[in-house]
Specification:
Elements (H helix, E strand, L loop, with lengths): L1 H21 L3 E7 L17 H9 L1 E3 L2 E2 L4 H10 L28 H6 L4 E7 L18 E5 L10 E2 L2 E2 L2 E2 L2 E2 L8 H15 L7 E6 L18 H22 L6 E7 L23 H4 L3 E4 L9 E3 L3 E2 L3 H9 L13 H6 L7 E7 L4 E6 L2 E5 L40 E5 L15 H15 L29
Helix pairs in contact: 5-6
């Protein structure tokens, strides 16, 4: 009898261990806001990011991971798997006073993950619409949400213009006064990690930080000449605190962590994208090539290397679903990149759309090594130097970092062609040298344009005014 009980106990132990290992992995998706290509320590020793550096260097650094030129479109890609020009979010960003939104008929990433039992939590910046409750995070698949709806706000006062913008689920929330937002978000993330049982539940934690979007506010102004350096350091510290708890609580045994920026850095606020050309809100590589990496203790078959395979922000949607054991819909734009990320196999992606914006009358696509730009790439068209102690703001045009509401007037030729493989910094327009390639790329762009959904870029609505909503930017006016 004792032997039988011993065998039974062993069987139960083996079964439980197998069940635990078979549970879908935990997924933590961290998105930095406006982080420049060169604003991370693994590329630029001026930046102090030891926690991010350690994760990146022990994981897989992604050298050809593309995002959209500005905030809303990239977040649309992550949550939907569709290019923005297929959802109407290709132009500019959703403004706080306008009824823009990601279409409500789209099944979001957290909604798909909940189909296989994930608990889903979001902490940070939404920026995908809020004029109606149905467009907000807890109605789009998240079990909980702490953060803000709009593009930007103060790191301490959580206000933008005349309104306050900070929520906990569907209630206005006031964090401890004087606490920096990166700390607020990290503490909420840690509370979630402590509340979930990592052995019995699969967690999807979406962490789109406010950092390092303007306003340039940090925690130690008297001691830092470089505001942005300090802001990036605060982000790094928050990630370090979160990963410490991930390890202490046992999540790392079965976890995939993704880190990416949402767009290139705005040089007018001290960001840097060297050696890439351009900045946030441009179609240049400096606006669309994102600092990114993946990390896992157990799930990646090959680590500690630089992955140069092509991927786009829309690819995270089917890739993360693959990791979770969910089949993505066949009609999305994203491709499953898991073999490429985990084993460094050739990327299934051979081309992608940077953007198609019928209002700005510009577009860009990549096919193989070639990149075609139609119309003006944007306002910031140079290669901007690193900031200095004397001049912490980069030399850049004194303009808004967001897209103009009108078509951009530019001296750039109507079509430019670059060989990104051999000229990743876009110094040499080869359109005149290879007119036949330009014609082929123009035909391909025309094919993409056939499926364009008109931009959902409505004018401001007076009903959004915070004075009608107890001083807050609140849903319920569209």
């Amino acid at each position: 009898m004792a032997v039988e009980l011993s065998l039974l106990a062993s069987f139960v132990s083996i079964f439980m261990a197998h069940a635990s290992s078979a549970r879908p992995p935990h997924i933590v998706l961290i998105v930095a806001d406006d982080l420049g290509w060169n604003d991370v320590g693994w590329r630029n020793p001026q930046m102090h990011t030891p926690n991010l550096d350690k994760l990146a260097r022990n994981g897989v650094i992604l050298n050809s991971s593309y995002v959209q030129p500005v905030c809303t479109p990239t977040r649309n890609c992550l949550m939907s798997g569709y290019y923005p020009y297929h959802t109407g979010l290709q132009h500019d960003v959703i403004r706080g006073n306008a009824p823009g939104f990601m279409p409500s008929n789209i099944t979001t990433l957290p909604q798909k993950l909940k189909e296989v039992g994930y608990v889903t939590h979001m902490v940070g910046k939404w920026h995908l619409g809020y004029c109606n409750w149905k467009y907000t995070p807890t109605y789009r698949g998240f079990d909980s949400f702490m953060g803000f709806y709009s593009a930007m706000e103060g790191y301490y006062n959580h206000s933008e213009g005349d309104g306050y913008d900070f929520m906990f689920n569907t209630d206005v929330y006031y964090p401890p006064k004087g606490e920096y937002s990166a700390n607020v978000f990290a503490k909420r993330a840690i509370d979630i990690l402590n509340a979930v049982n990592p052995k019995n539940e699969s967690l999807f934690l979406y962490l789109p930080f406010q950092s390092v979007h303007d306003p340039t506010e940090n925690r130690d102004k008297p001691r830092r000449a470089f505001l942005l350096v300090s802001m990036v350091s605060a982000l790094d510290e928050a990630v370090g605190n979160i990963t410490t708890v991930l390890r202490e609580r046992g999540y790392m045994d079965n976890l995939l962590l993704i880190f990416t920026t949402d767009n290139g850095g705005p040089v007018i606020h001290g960001a840097n994208n060297l050696p890439l050309r351009g900045a946030k809100a441009t179609l240049w590589e400096g606006g669309t090539k994102g600092a990114a990496f993946v990390y896992s203790d157990t799930l990646l078959k090959k680590t500690k290397y630089l992955n140069t395979e092509m991927m786009h922000a829309v690819d995270w949607f089917p890739t993360l679903l693959h990791v979770a054991g969910v089949t993505a819909d066949s009609n999305i734009d994203g491709l499953d990149m898991w073999p490429t990320l985990s084993e460094n196999t050739p990327s299934p992606r051979k081309e992608f759309v940077y953007n198609i914006d019928e209002i700005l009358k510009n577009a860009a696509i990549r096919v193989g090594n070639y990149k075609l730009i139609e119309g003006s790439p944007g306002h910031s068209n140079g290669w901007y130097p690193l900031p200095t102690e004397a001049d912490p703001q980069s030399k850049a045009p004194a303009i808004s970092e967001e897209y103009s509401h009108e078509a951009i007037i530019s001296s750039e030729p109507q079509y430019q062609l670059f060989d990104i493989a051999n000229d990743p910094t876009e110094h040499f327009d080869i359109s005149k040298k290879y007119p036949e390639v330009v014609n082929q790329m123009k035909q391909r762009l025309s094919e993409y344009k056939k499926s364009l959904v008109p931009a959902n870029y409505p004018p401001p609505d007076p009903k959004s005014n915070p004075k009608y909503h107890n001083g807050t930017w609140s849903p319920g006016w569209c």
